[in-house]
Amino acid sequence: MKTIVVTGYKPMEMGIFKHDDAKVEFVKETIRKRLISLIEEGLEWIILSGQMGVELWTAEVVLDLKNDYPIQLGVIPPFQNQQSKWPDQLKLVYEEITELADFYKPIYNKEYEGPYQFRAKDQFLIEHSDGCLLLYDEDTPGTPQYFLKLVKTFQEHHTYDILYITPSDLDETVEEIRMSHHDFWEQ
User: Fold this and answer.
1) What is the predicted pLDDT for the residue at 186?
2) Which pTM value belongs to this model?
3) Residue 64: enclosing H or E segment and its boundaries?
4) Which residue in 47, 39, 41 sits closest to 127, CA to CA?
5) Which of 18, 48, 124, 172 ranks highest by number of CB atoms within 10 Å?
6) What is the CATH number of the domain that holds 92?
7) Which residue range is the domain that position 162 belongs to?
8) List of residues 6+ apart from 53 with CB closer than 8 A
C-alpha cells in the first residue's frame, strides 16, 4: 500500500473530552506503531479529513514521524472551515496541521451545507487510497460505521485493504507503556 486513509472515533465517542487527556497518548502510540510498520513496508501517503479525535491525533503522529521517515500527510476536509465550531484549543491544532501538511484541499470550496459533504469526502478518500487504517470496535459502531459501510461497498468491485486498531490493540499499548516504567517492576 502506498496511500492509506486513517480514521476512527471522535474524542467524545471514546470518553475523551480534552485534547491533553492521558488516554490520547495511548491512542497516539498505538497509531504510531502501526504507521511505522506500514511505512517500513512502503507506505508513502497518509490521508485524512482532519476531524477531531483519531484523525487529528494521527496527523500529529505523522508530523512527528516526518522527522525520521519519508512519509507525507494529506488533509482533505469535506468543506471549508470544518473547525469553525470546535473548542479553541482544537482549532489551533487543526490550523497548525493544515499549515504543515504536504497537501491540503477541502472537497467543497464552501462552508457546511449538509451531510452529503461528509459522504462525498469519505468516497473521495476511499477512491484515492489503497486501504484504510480504522480505529474501530464492532461493539461500538459510532461514526466510523458510515466510512466502513462505504469501504465495504467499494470492496465489491475494487481491491481495498481494511486494517483495524481494536480495543485490544489499545490495551496492549497501555500494558507495554505500563511495563516500561521502572516502578512497575519494583512492586
Assistant:
1) 62
2) 0.94
3) helix 54-65
4) 47
5) 48
6) 3.40.50.450
7) 3-184
8) 8, 9, 10, 11, 12, 13, 14, 16
**Nearest partner of 31 among 41, 42, 39, judged by Cα:** 39
Could you read off the pLDDT of 95-104 as tens digits, one per residue? Answer: 999 999 999 9
**How many structural domains is the chain composed of?**
1
CB-CB contact of 131 with 4 (8 Å): yes
**CA distance readout (Å), 54 to 113, 153, 181:** 24, 23, 25
SS3 84: coil
Residues 17-56 have pLDDT tens digits of 998 899 999 999 999 999 999 999 999 999 999 999 999 9
**3-state secondary structure (DSSP) of residue 59:** helix
- What's the mean pLDDT in 88-92? 95
The answer to whether the CB of 55 falls within 8 A of the CB of 6 is yes
Name the pairing type of β-strands 45-48 and 3-7: parallel
d(CA 24, CA 16): 8
